[in-house]
């Protein structure tokens, strides 16, 4: 029989209360190992053999709150529950970290908490605007051959390429 879980422990649940089967974990911090207890809970461990998070069936519960661990657990939760998730327990920093990680990594998430969803969407828009700005800046840069070099003049169509002797750095 499953033990009741503390209400303050950080966890992700399916927003609709479904209890899906196990799901594969995607990178970044693939766990080094896992252990299944007699109740079927799967605890994933990092390289130092510290518990990262536990898949209890209806929830993914965190033992660590490091960013890579939260991202890996979030990816597992999204694979299990789909994009509609509810965060339980934890403090505001944990909740904000989850929204920020989802936005930063380009994960599609529908948080049950409207304020958290708004934070996630604003961050996604800011990232999108930043990428658009960087792309525009890259297009506006003049072509250069690298540090200390000037760009070669464009070759006209139909002209033979001009070959210059290669400087090998040796004296003759």
UniProtKB/TrEMBL annotation:
It comes from the Bacteria. Signal peptide: none annotated. Residues 1-37, 127-172 are annotated as: Disordered. Residues 35-124 form the Large polyvalent protein-associated domain. InterPro entries: LPD7. Residues 8-21, 151-172 have a biased composition (Basic and acidic residues). This is Large polyvalent protein-associated domain-containing protein.
């Amino acid at each position: 029989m499953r033990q009741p879980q503390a209400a303050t422990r950080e966890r992700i649940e399916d927003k609709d209360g479904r209890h899906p089967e196990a799901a594969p974990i995607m990178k970044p911090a693939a766990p080094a190992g896992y252990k299944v207890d007699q109740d079927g809970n799967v605890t994933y461990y990092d390289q130092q053999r510290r518990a990262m998070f536990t898949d209890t069936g209806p929830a993914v519960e965190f033992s660590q709150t490091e960013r890579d661990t939260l991202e890996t657990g979030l990816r597992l939760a999204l694979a299990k529950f789909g994009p509609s998730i509810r965060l339980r327990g934890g403090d505001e920093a944990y909740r904000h970290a989850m929204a920020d990680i989802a936005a930063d990594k380009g994960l599609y998430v529908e948080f049950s908490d409207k304020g958290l969803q708004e934070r996630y969407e604003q961050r996604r828009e800011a990232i999108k605007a930043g990428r658009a700005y960087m792309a525009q800046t890259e297009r506006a840069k003049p072509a250069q051959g690298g540090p200390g070099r000037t760009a070669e003049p464009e070759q006209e169509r139909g002209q033979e390429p001009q070959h210059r002797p290669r400087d090998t750095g040796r004296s003759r």
